Amino acid sequence: MAITRQLHVVDDDDDSTLLNVAFATSDRINLDQHFGSARSFTIYGIDPERSKLLQVSEFGELKQDGNEDKLAEKIAMLEGCIAVYCRACGASAVRQLMAHGIQPVKVNDEAEIAELISALQFELKQGPSSWLAKALRSHQLSSPSRFDDMEAEGWNE
Question: In angstroms, how far is the first alpha carbon of the chain from the final one?
Fold first, then answer.
């Protein structure tokens, strides 16, 4: 199923150091959706000190029917995310997410996204778990350095 609506937050902030994390949600407040049948995802940029809404993508009503065709567009939409938090995630979806460098994080009980972001920020400050440490290393390797940015701009005298 295709994306029915999408919001991208546009501003002049440099968000290249933020870690993009997605949350499967029906109301943009609570983590309350299964990955495969999630009606929408909210993506935040997160670092130890701040969080920022970056994107909301809506897919409409989806069933938990085992139809894996619907996963490809969701995974493509999550490009650049280090993780996706959800209530549940099937084995095939887990394999596909991991192949794209996206860690599925299962949360057993309904939780508020703000609380999950706070917990993730606390973990970033205290020392990341193994999956988060791996994601941080991958993010640092894929982020261009400021010198690369300057070189790309060119030199004018």
Answer: 52
